[in-house]
Amino acid sequence: MSDLLFDRLGGIEGATRIAHDLVDNHLKNKAISTRFADSDIAALKNAAATFLIAGTGGPDVYKGKDMLAAHKGMNISALEFMAVLDDALVALGKNNVGQREQEEVLFALYSMRSQIVLV
């Protein structure tokens, strides 16, 4: 098996499923769902999937903004950020992602905290 996290997540199909489940979790999460009220959900799912694909060692298919530019001025709180991580953990579990891979994804997401929270 490949050492790439992308491959261990199931490649394009696996990363896409995880990302779509993650967005679905956000839409149901009362702590953050209002942030997505006026969003194009299909575009959001596509951005999440391509971000996860590119960010885990897959093809460089992400064409969106960097995290700082995407979240600047949104005043996202630490609690909202943790809600996103919780939603990610649920999506990873739903897709039977192994413990090591879950930890790697959460570490990568948490490493972006300074570019997202209160920027």
How is this fold's topology laid out?
Blueprint: H1 5-8, H2 11-28, H3 41-55, H4 67-71, H5 78-94, H6 99-110
Helix pairs in contact: 2-3, 2-5, 5-6
Descriptive tags:
Globin-like; metal ion binding; heme binding; oxygen binding; mainly alpha; 6 helices
Query: Helix and strand succession?
Result: HHHHHH
- Give the low-confidence spans: none
Shape: globular
Helix count from the secondary structure assignment: 6
Number of domains: 1
Q: Termini distance?
A: 39 Å
Q: Can you identify the CATH superfamily?
A: Globins
CATH class: Mainly Alpha
- The portion of residues assigned to helices is 55-70%
- Overall mean confidence score, pLDDT: 97
Number of strands: 0
Structural category: mainly alpha
Please state the CA-atom Rg, rounded to the nearest Å. Answer: 14 Å
Q: Might you state the CATH topology name? A: Globin-like
Cofactor: heme
Pfam families: Bac_globin (PF01152)
Protein name: Globin
Binding site for heme: 71
Task: Give your account of this protein's structure.
It is a single chain. By secondary structure, the protein is mostly helical. It has a single domain (5-115), classed as Globins (Globin-like, Orthogonal Bundle). The chain has 6 helices and no strands. It has helices spanning 5-8, 11-28, 41-55, 67-71, 78-94, 99-110. Helix 5 (78-94) packs antiparallel against helix 6. The chain is globular. The mean pLDDT is 97. Pfam families: Bac_globin (PF01152). GO terms for molecular function: heme binding; metal ion binding; oxygen binding. Heme binds at residue 71.
